[in-house]
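To fix ideas, we close by showing one paired sequence and structure record:
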Amino acid sequence: MTADELAGLSERAASLLSGGGGLKALAQLLCEATGGAVLIEDDQWRHLALAEPKGLPGPLPPSFLPFYQKAGVKAAKNGVVVQAAISDSMQGFCAHMPGHGDSNAVPGYVTLFVRGKSRSDVAPALRITASVAAVDHLRRGSMPSQARRLFWERFLTGELGDSAGVRQEAAAAGVPLPAALLAAIFDVEGIAPQAARELITHALAATEALCPLSPAAGQVVTLFPIRHQVDVARARQASAHVVRELPAQRSARSVNCGIGAFHKELLHVPLSLREAREALSLGRRLFGPGSVAVYPDLGIFALLHGGGDREAFASFAAALIEPLAVYDRRHKTDLLKTLQLYLEAGENVKVAAERLSVHRHTIFYRLNQISQILNVDLKTTKDQLSLRAALAIRQMNASEEPQ
């Protein structure tokens, strides 16, 4: 495009903006000026507007994010246009909307899809459109965006004191809240914080996970919507996949993840987030880089690391051991006693069988039942330590009860 054509595009875009035209109209303007398709996406690569000409070869991708990542862009910089081959007959050019002031936050992205293998002449027009789109997007969305950010900050720090208040403030900020949320934190190394947030959001798109806050030092706060108990397991599986695959794809140098416990009440989401932070920190020390640490699975390690008080230790013991005690009461079994004697005997099945006056095969059968009921692995040091500690805490609390 010539200088006069670019000046004309700028004037028409400014006129469109002052007249109240939105992103859809702006996309259509660039589409008509270049003959290409225009896709506008927000800071998390969600669709905002699309304009398509007739006769564009091949279908458009739903988002430019995969091509943006493949280009190896570490951090968005003003004036940079990312180019990628969409197909043999189509090229994509992407420019980010400039952020406010010195902020590194990117309001969104404008992508132009054109015919042919090389159309570098469209870059200036694309940058003009991205700049105008930023003004419109920020003008229309700054107040709602600030309200959403403020809500998430207050909610996740525990400032909101009751469930009704949480939902009222969420509705006022335009934030749809699911029935429950599970918190996780991804520590992404090797890329800029905002790029890390975009990467995690895209990788977890199938789970509908939210990354509501701008990350600090590459740590991306992630919230998984939980509708059914099976969603907890799916969230953990998806997290493990992200930790494993992103470094393998060279999208990041390394990824660690900490996941909190699932609490049904929305008011306990801040607790789940604190647990996720504990799990992330402890997971690095116990398991090294590239690990996923789940707070409930850390057992006594999490309690010791967090410096729990007496009530916390009692709650830990009850949560771990009580399912076994309940099973014994319902089925008239001696699984709890079997576990105690087995551990006291140094995991010696023969000695435990002699003390209980049963066959060794009976002990093996009971140990298998115990593992299934408590969801533990009696062969691991971590679970053995947690069980020993829980039994000791339970015994001490029982001995202090008035006779």
In short: The beta strands are 37-42, 47-51, 81-87, 90-96, 108-115, 181-189, 219-225, 254-259, 292-294. DSSP finds 14 helices and nine strands in the chain. The domain at 3-139 is CATH 3.30.450.40 (Beta-Lactamase).
